[in-house]
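Dear Dr. H.,

I hope your travels went smoothly. While you were away I took the liberty of generating a structure for the chain from your last submission, since the lab meeting agenda had it listed for discussion. I wanted you to have the full record in hand beforehand rather than looking at slides cold. The sequence, exactly as received, is reproduced here:
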Amino acid sequence: MTGQGPAGAPWQAPTDVEQRLYEAKTRGDWAAYFDVLAGAHLYHAMPRARADARPGWVTYAPTRVGGTKYLVFLTEGVLPAPVADPVFFRDDLGELARNWPRDDEWLAIDPGTPCEAYFPATAAHRRTWLQHTARVAYPPRGELRTLRAGGPLHGPVAHGLACGALLCVANASLWNAMGWHGTGYVRERKRLKEWWGITSREEWLSAQEDLLEGRMSSSFWQLVLRVRSALALDYGGAVEVDHWRQVTDRYLREHAEPAAQAAQVSGAQRLIGRITRYEARFRADGLLPEGGFVRTVEAWDYGRASKMARWGLGARFCDLAEAERAVVRAGRLSRITYRSWEEFSAAYILGRCLHFDGEEFGAWYADMLHAHRVLTTDPGSPWRNIPFA
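The corresponding predicted structure, in token form, is as follows:
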């Protein structure tokens, strides 16, 4: 279903959220409209200087139309491209119901679009909002979501964005949103500080380059995997685990520093055991074909590089053009290193599991397995519509 834009032109709903809002509005079904809002991310603009001055605090800026004041919130698909100022913070309907600043300020959703709507926000109305949030899951998880208007669907940028699609599906974020706002400016900065130790543009640049060069993953993992890949080329097929262990042992005894030799040999043997057990599980779960194995885990870096470009944009450590160049580069490097989305995926997931999972096969693995299955089977998946090579 399409509506009419503000000037009467045909309108394509950018995402599933705006489409469902439009359909509910068209039917006059405002309960359904609020059910959609209850499960959606809602964004409000604020001056960057205020966000920088008091991280964690939000500033609501009302818009006055006639005698009525509105707080404008945008859904994800209608957000403007990120610029230096203003920035956006992300809210949800439950937070708004609990923290609404003034009873005389109305709620405005997506003004100027066919799905726009305006609502009073008294305490009684906000209690109704909470009833909707009580029955709708938020935040969304484990969904393939696509920006149908305004996001690339084919070509080098789309390919590079699709390299980060595993994490996008896990978090139900728009896989092809190049103009990234994510969790909002302040939270994107907090994410980079807590998970990556990044607090400046210079640190972001360094991390982005390390990921694109494949230097962020353990060089020890790469060494051990390269030994097996070399053996597979030499012998033209599967490599027995004992053979892999023996050759790795010999290589390390010949090349490792004497003081570190014993520890590296022991560590390599443990790592080979971990990798073989993960790959056995991958084959059982369909991540790898029978007899398949992971040649290198650089995909773990390239996939994160695709996301790091967007996180850096959301945190305003770079601009849109710079983020796009990094995304394209991540896609190009992935095509050089791997032969298919499936091979890329197994390598990415092994790297993630070696780093986080500890052979528990918990959420660090389960979320990626689910995302892999969605991306390899959903007809709308970028992995089904964008050739890897």
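Two observations you may find useful: Strands lie at 3-4, 10-11, 42-46, 63-65, 68-75, 87-91, 105-109, 117-119. The CA atoms of residues 18 and 115 lie 6 Å apart.

With kind regards,
E. W.
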